[in-house]
Amino acid sequence: MSLQCFLDFGNSRVKAWLCLDNVVLEKISHVHRLDVHSFFTEMPDLFQQRMDFVGVTSVLDAKSNHEFAVQAERQWGVQPRFAESQGNCCGVRNGYRQPEQLGVDRWMNILAVSGQEGGCCVVSCGTATTIDMIEDGSHTGGFILPGFQLQLQSLIQGTQKVRPGVLSDSAVSPGCSTTEAVHNGILLGQLSMIERCFNDMRQRFGGEGRLVLTGGDADKLGPHLACPHDIIPELVLVGLRRYFDFVVSSEE
Length: 252
Prior knowledge:
The chain has two domains: 80 residues, ATPase, nucleotide binding domain (Nucleotidyltransferase, domain 5); 124 residues, 2-Layer Sandwich (Nucleotidyltransferase, domain 5). Helices cover 36% and strands 27% of the residues. The strands form three sheets. It has a five-stranded mixed sheet with strand order 3-2-1-4-5, covered by helices on one side. Strands 10-9-8-11-12 form a five-stranded mixed sheet, sandwiched between helices. Strands 6-7 form a two-stranded antiparallel sheet. The radius of gyration is 19 Å and the shape is globular. The model has no long low-confidence stretch (mean pLDDT 92).
């Protein structure tokens, strides 16, 4: 039997799966503080034991990744392996002219939803909103724009009088206060971008196609989308496990 840990270090959160022979035993998800020691001490007991394999995807800087790797090897008795963006993996072609420049989290999302005929639009709704297009198993490129909170912060920092308050539920109707106008405007902009990308892709495939959302703001955007979609909260980890299944089997 093989005990495996798969981790996804995003810009603000870390998610992890503990697996036994690829069957998920336990999951964790919390805001990370870039503090390696506290990360390991705060993990549930099941995550404290020795591992046979540790696979990681990370958008953090090289220093943070190195510190994590050193502590992980002490804690788990195995050196973690970090996923990388490649030109091809799992039969999927990377659409970037320089494949290594595609964010590894986006690459994992692409691998997670690929492997089917037709088109798929995968949207990560996090600190940044990223939209990637997969057509007949090949990544054809994508878009990056500031996420909901980044757009909100930019308005506050870039203006003197736009000071929106907290709004529990945004809508796509015109706002009747500055708070509503800002929140609803950001929401409408995000939805319009997603729907335009998805509808353009569907036209190329005769009305067929799949839209997949993931990330912390997926539940905020999903109810307002005017097109069918799936929400998969841990899509990066789905892709990460598929990535290492392919890489490890290729090495054997």
